Amino acid sequence: MGAITYDIEISSIPAKMFKAVVLDADTLIPKIMPQAIKNVEILEGDGGVGTVKIIHFGEGSQYKSAKHRVDATDTENLTHSYTIIEGDVLAGVLESITYHVKIVATEDGGCICKNRSIYHTKGDVEINEEKIKEGKEKAMQMLKAIEAYLQAN
């Protein structure tokens, strides 16, 4: 098991960014980055804790789909956790990937998006650091695209 943590400073209002990144992500991201995510559909649940969704990646992705489960959402403290439980993104070597997202306000009215990814490997499999780096960079690109969208709208 390995954990990767990274922070991205964003100039958007914290509550607005949380709404975009967490609450509206299923419809917003396919709208602004269709090459990354084609669509998201709920398989079980109402969107809250325990909800299972399938993400269909866009043509610009090397992956087809990923199924994830919402583990926790706290709109007051601007935190969200979810786990990828199935899909080719796990590459046959991971049991799951758990993500923890926290939006923290900065003094200048912007925010920092803190992300922690925990990779649960099958057995003693070593994690490919290049693949993790690629995933981190794509996540950062997505957050920057969301920020640009929020600033323009």
UniProtKB/TrEMBL annotation:
Domain of life where this protein originates = Eukaryota
Keywords assigned: Pathogenesis-related protein, Plant defense
Instruction: Enumerate the CDD domains for this protein.
Output: Bet_v1-like
Residue span(s) of domain Bet v I/Major latex protein = 1-153
One example of a Gene Ontology biological process annotation: abscisic acid-activated signaling pathway
Gene Ontology terms, MF aspect:
abscisic acid binding; protein phosphatase inhibitor activity; signaling receptor activity
One Gene Ontology term, aspect cellular component: nucleus
Q: Which Gene3D superfamilies match?
A: 3.30.530.20
Give the protein family.
Belongs to the BetVI family.
What's the protein called, per UniProt?
Major allergen Pru ar 1
